Amino acid sequence: MAAPSILLWFSRQLDRINATVGAVVMWFAIGMMLIQFGIVIMRYVFGMSFIFLNELELYLHAALFMLGAGFTLLHDGHVRVDIFYGALTPRKRALVDFLGTLILLIPTCIVLLYYTWPFVRRSWQIMEGPLSVGGIPALYLLKSLLPAFAVLVLIQGVALALRSLAVMLGAPAPQKAPQTPVEKGEGV
Question: What's the rounded Cα separation, in Å, for the pair 120 and 146?
């Protein structure tokens, strides 16, 4: 097996992680919509309000974006300032992606993990309660999204770096985000 093939195989294995997480987390958007609809109906039709439901929507919103960031990177959906990048050859794009991942993305994720871990660990140690009286008594779960975000983006960054390195070594450049078995409907 040639080096580019091995790199692509490893990147596909890492892609599966975020593809699986994304396939689950995308349903949070529907949950948020249903909860918000329920909140509006209860408030304006029945004159009732529950802080628990407002916080549940907040938790789902945070989880959707924090856990879905790696999935978005997998599908190249993050905002990019594309002044020169679009005009580059596939190998030069791969070089830009590789260097950007190694110099910016991976160190940022590591720093984020380093500085959020004590904060999250302390929250779990004291089983930190709700944001507001009557809210969800599990703020530690919300705070846990910070290192989870960093880990998922880091995993996808490594996959992107491996794929970019494979292209620089001669593998054909992918035309779009690679499809994983989960996205093809084959399961994990």
Answer: 8
Say if pTM beats, i.e. exceeds, 0.90. Answer: no
Q: Where are the domains of the chain?
A: 3-168
What are 99-108's pLDDT values in tens digits?
Answer: 999 999 999 9
